[in-house]
Amino acid sequence: MTVLFWIVLLSAIAIVSIHVAVALGTLRSLLIERHMIAVEAEIEPGRTSVIVPARDEEELLPRLLHCLERQNTNRFEIVLVNDRSDDRTPEIMHEFADRHRGRVSVVTLVEDPPAGNPKQRALAEGVKAATGDVLLLTDADCWLPVDWVRTMSRPFRSHDVGIVFGPVIPGVKGLDRRAQLMDWYQGFDQLFRYQYTAGAAGLGTPAGGYGNNLAVRRAALEDAGGFEGLRYSQTEDAQLISQVRDSGRWAIVSVRSRGARVVPAPGTNLRTLLKQSIRWSMGGLFAPDMKTRISYGVVMLYLTISILLLPFSGLEASLAIPAAGSFVSMMMLGLIAGAINRPGAWYWSTLLPNILISMVAYSLVTLLTLARVPVTWKGQRLPSP
Question: What residue ranges define each of the domains in the chain, with the CATH number in brackets?
Answer without folding.
Answer: 3-382 (3.90.550.10)
